[in-house]
Write a structure and sequence with these properties.
It is a single chain. Helices cover about 85% and strands about 0% of the residues. The chain is mainly alpha-helical and about 100 residues long. The N and C termini lie far apart (about 55 Å). It holds the Pfam family PTS_IIA.
């Protein structure tokens, strides 16, 4: 599989993950905590799929099957990190909104 296809596979997975994490924050704000948790778990599945694709790229490079650095790869890694940040934030926002709901 060529690098471009691998990168697009990674972008698809982590893009889906990021969307799930963002929607989870929105659901938590509306006090739909169960749905928010489901979205976070779904996001984690997709994030892990994207992370596995990234690990595959790294493994190939370690085996001396080097890929040229490309903007698509840089973009894919940027999307991976963005999704990871939203994963962390979505879990924190869910906890925060749950605590605020109990405090009222």
């Amino acid at each position: 599989m060529d690098t471009e296809k691998i990168c697009f596979e990674m972008i698809c997975h982590v893009g889906d993950a990021r969307s799930s994490f963002i929607e989870a924050i929105q659901q938590a704000r509306q006090k739909n905590f169960l749905r928010a948790r489901e979205l976070i778990e779904n996001g984690k599945v997709n994030y892990n799929l994207g992370h596995a694709v990234h690990a595959r790229l790294i493994q190939q490079e370690m085996e001396q099957d080097r890929h040229p650095l490309s903007l698509i790869l840089v973009h894919a890694e940027d999307q991976l990190m963005s999704a990871e940040n939203f994963k962390i934030l979505s879990e924190d926002f869910l906890c925060l909104y749950q605590l605020l709901g109990k405090a009222r």
